[in-house]
Amino acid sequence: MNELSTIVSLAKRRGFIFQSSEIYGGLASTYDYGPLGVEMRRNIKDSWWKTFVHEREDIVGLDSAILMAPQVWDASGHTSAGFADPLVDCRSCRQRFRADQFWCVSVLAVEGENETVSLIAASAQEALNLFYTIYKNKGNSFEIDSEPVPFSDIEDETVIPCPACNATASLTKPRMFNLMLKTFLGPLEDEASQTYLRPETAQGIFVNFQNVLNSTRRKLPFGIAQIGKAFRNEITVGNFIFRTREFEQMEIEYFVKPGSDEEWQEKWTQDCLSWFLSLGIAKGNLQIREHDKSELAHYAKGTYDIEYKFPWGWGEIQGISNRTDYDLKSHSAASGNNLSYFDEETQKQITPFVIEPSSGIDRTLLALLFDAYCEEESVSVDGKKDKRVVLKLNPVIAPVKVAVLPLSRNEKLLPKSREVLALLQKKFVVQYDDAQSIGRRYRRQDEIGTPLCVTIDFQTVEEDDAVTIRERDTMNQSRVPTSDLINEISSRLFLQ
């Protein structure tokens, strides 16, 4: 398993991801996407939109505003305790934790003293897995006295060690902390002008349900898809771009008849899993986990998570929730507008149930980087052992599709190289590189995941007007006439 530090280093070195405001010391849990990162993000979004909108007849798109009327968040439950996390502070190291992700495990040591271990995890099972990993690595002999217990269920918090500094009697009691980011509209910063940056994209879909229904005349079941930014004042952040305060969601609200909701939730779970597999993520690194009742949001009847096996453990990259009719009924009651649907089959007004497949672009991108990264032993042209770092990204999401590489900077090669570059730029995202040896340039392209390299040499300009195509994964090379180059590359990238 690749270490997080390896991916972070690669992301910065090659221009995928930078720390936001880095020259000023950085802003915690915010990131900027560099030249390669922005292309990869776009490719992920394009693939998702093509799969779930363009290739289906039952999905339409929407782009709702980030700023919405404050009443939206009152009706949805976000301004109440429904969108607040329990916060725990450590007086010793000054770190903060979510009490619902703070787990305690009582250990009966076979050798040594008994102890309580603190862990930060999304679920009891994840905490247990993390515990076994830690103790296995330490080589300890032990027995578990009980299953992991959430911090909020502990009567005496003074006996619980801080998961960061291990200090006891230093943790505060949990207190509720709302995750929404406030702002003000207009010239005055008073209660009347207060609003919020949206913490999720879903509500923009719900308040536009009737607009979409009237303008498209859709019949149940149908869905509304949206890709957009959301903002949360997260208590616990970290693990690079896995949990950030500003993030982008790819989300669908799929409206179905009550009674068919569980069947549709199962179907959407499998469809979403298939999409991740189509991007090239190894099947063994994905799992489906059903939420315990204690984990469910206040609006949810049931939720499935698609999780990826990150270095720190299994982490959610997609949630598929059954939101029932909670949102449409809440907004109907609060706004006074009827958000129901006339069912022609029963001749009755009904409020649809909603299945919500929602995934984060940032988490998806991070999972793809981890899954594609590999280090291979190879032999250089002079017979020396060498290490090749390669991102084996699916060509669909690779930020650069083709690299144009003149064999050298010889002036005889430049005109033809520029001609080939101009030809390919009309069809593909192309990178031109003529710095250093051809071997070093191949390695640079391997490291950023470029599927194909096109090399222009003296044979190209003096003899056959053909170029060499080199494949990233196999390193096989073949000659192709420039007249066939577009079709040949399209075929190899599965773009025809």
What features would you describe in this structure?
- The protein is α+β, with helices and mostly antiparallel strands.
- The protein has 3 domains: 4-79 and 180-369, Bira Bifunctional Protein, Domain 2 (BirA Bifunctional Protein, domain 2, 2-Layer Sandwich), CATH 3.30.930.10; 84-177, no CATH class; 400-492, Rossmann fold (3-Layer(aba) Sandwich), CATH 3.40.50.
- 29% of the residues lie in helices and 30% in strands.
- It contains 13 helices and 27 strands.
- The protein has helices at residues 4-13, 35-54, 70-76, 124-138, 202-206, 209-216, 261-278, 326-335, 361-372, 414-425, 438-448, 458-464, 485-492; strands spanning 17-19, 31-33, 59-61, 84-89, 96-98, 102-109, 115-120, 142-144, 149-150, 175-178, 181-184, 194-197, 222-231, 246-256, 286-290, 302-310, 313-324, 341-343, 348-350, 353-360, 373-379, 385-391, 402-406, 430-432, 452-456, 466-471, 477-481.
- The protein has a 7-stranded mixed beta sheet with strand order 3-13-14-20-17-16-15. A 5-stranded mixed beta sheet has the order 24-23-25-26-27, with helices on both faces. Strands 6, 7, 8 and 9 form a 4-stranded antiparallel beta sheet that branches.
- Helix 3 packs across helix 8.
- The protein is globular and about 80 Å long.
- The mean pLDDT is 89.
